[in-house]
Amino acid sequence: MALLDSTRSILVVIDFQGKLVHxxxxxxxxxxxxxxxxxxxxxxxxxxxxxxxxxxxxxxxEESIRAIYDGLATPKYFLEKTAFGCxxxxxxxxxxxxxxxxxxxxxxxxxxxxxxAHVCVMQTVLELLASDxxxxxxxxxxxxxxxxxxxxxxxxxxxxxxxxxxxxxxxFEWARDKNHPQFKALSALMKEGQPQx
Length: 197
Description:
Rossmann fold
C-alpha cells in the first residue's frame, strides 16, 4: 500500500454521535485522535466527509468533533444516513467525487475515523475496498463497544486489504518532509500532548 498523498486523500469521520460516543472502548483518546485528524486535514487541505447515522434516534455529532468540523477551512461535506455502511447511501459516492473531482476510486486514499468498528466502520470499509478504493484505518480514532469488537473488526478489515495506521503516521505522510510549509504547525499540534488511554 502506498504512502498517503495529501492531494489524493479524503478523511471520512463516521458517526461520532450522541451517548454512543461515550460508551465505546477508550472514548477520550479516540475522540482526541479524531479531533487531531480533523485539524490535520485542515492543515493539509484534505477534504473531510462527516457522517451521522439516523441522528433522530442516536443523536447529533459529539460537540467537540462538530465544532472542529464546522470551523474547517478545507472542503467539507456532510452525510445523514440510515444505511450502516456509508456506501449504502447513494449520496456518499457523490460526495467523494465532489471532494476529489477527476480521481477514479482506485486513485482515492480514504482515511477513516469513526464508530462503531464492527458495524458502520467495517461495512463502509469493506464496501470501499470492494469498489477499488485504498483505505487507511486510524486505529487510534476508531472504536466500538468493547475492546474485542474493535480488535477483531480491525483484523477483518486488514485481512480484506485495508491499511492499519494512526493519526501521527497520517500527519507525517501528508507532510513527507520537514520543509513542508505546514510542518511547524503539525509539530506544534503533536506537542500538545498525546491522547492517553
